[in-house]
């Protein structure tokens, strides 16, 4: 059995035991009916002014609070795992790679998508329009290089260090190959100049 399933069962059992009643009331002098029959109407009018205070323990309440908090965290974790698996199925992949986009206003943007070796510029608004298809050429290399050199903010950098998805691995490989192509083209230019 998976260890996480074992921990879920242990947590569930411990929560069930912690939700048991905190105290059990025990009748000291019989049933309510017997007490009602014993007392006279004059005795019923008299009440004790100072009932004896009972000491309440905080430990059961603390255990319930901690158990409930852990249960909520566990449920949140399960929901997030489920959602991440669902979004991975729809995140694309294969030959399609979204390289970037730029917002142009309300629900309007310009998107750069690479399919195979061809780069497509798409206008996205109420519908999607092909603005331009850029086949493999010098212009495409320059565009890909500018995408590769965009500054990375610290949050994105920190998040990528935690877990890399297949898209991030592909992006990293693309950047590496772009730098290699640039260095190869720079070396060929130097060779032609001599």
Structure description:
This protein is of the alpha+beta class. Helix content is about 55%, strand content about 15%. α1 packs antiparallel against α4 (about 60-90). The radius of gyration is 35 Å and the shape is elongated.
Total number of strands? 4
Average of the residue pLDDT scores:
75
Structural class: alpha+beta
**Span of the ends, CA to CA:** 68 Å
How many strands, what sense, and barrel or not for the largest sheet? 4 strands, antiparallel
Low-confidence stretches: none
Radius of gyration: 35 Å
Strand order, sheet with most strands: 1-2-3-4
Number of helices: 7
Please trace the helix and strand order, writing H or E for each element. Answer: HHHHEEEEHHH
How large a portion of the residues is in β-strands, by DSSP E? 15-25%
Query: What gross morphology would you assign?
Result: elongated
Helix content: 55-70%
Topology:
Elements: H1 3-18, H2 32-38, H3 41-45, H4 59-90, E1 96-105, E2 108-115, E3 118-124, E4 128-134, H5 138-148, H6 154-162, H7 166-193
Helix pairs in contact: 1-4, 5-7
List key phrases describing it.
single chain; 194 residues; alpha+beta; 4-stranded antiparallel beta sheet; 7 helices; 16% strand; elongated
What's a quick, concise take on this entry?
The chain is α+β, with helices and mostly antiparallel strands.
